[in-house]
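I have been asked to look over a protein record a colleague put together. The record follows directly below this note.
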Amino acid sequence: MSENGKVRKMMIIMSKATLENVYAGFILANGARMEGIESEMFFTFFGLEAIQKDKLKDLHVATVGNPAMHIPTLVGGLPGMEGFATKMMKSKMEKLDIPPVDEFLEMLTASGSKIWACKLAMDMFKVEEKDLIDDLDGVLTVGDFYARSEGEGTHVIYI
């Protein structure tokens, strides 16, 4: 912790692009900015889909292997269940005035949050920078990410 134990910066690693994981990261980053705390998001592995222009509007809720769904795995894997759960989640979020993924990303960058893509994941999945959102702050190696995480009062969260 830094002076007076205050959080100064949140570094959020996004490794999955399921709807529930992406919104968890977005809400944490947005909450940090609302409290005057710096926030940076590092999208790696499957999390890259949340910042890919052609995929970010089609993120889904994970219904298989998700104990919080309170449905058996077999039922979660039935055709249409993922789509049904996703539609329900999006409807609930809309009622709470939570913006869709693309708008939330715009809000985050407008508030000063930094959005980074992982170079290794991009190379592995053959994703090019032109495939990612226009507001991307850049592409980082893991070493670059660690360098940005230095300093007292910085917290790292892995989602």
Notes: The chain has one domain: 3-158. The mean pLDDT is 91.
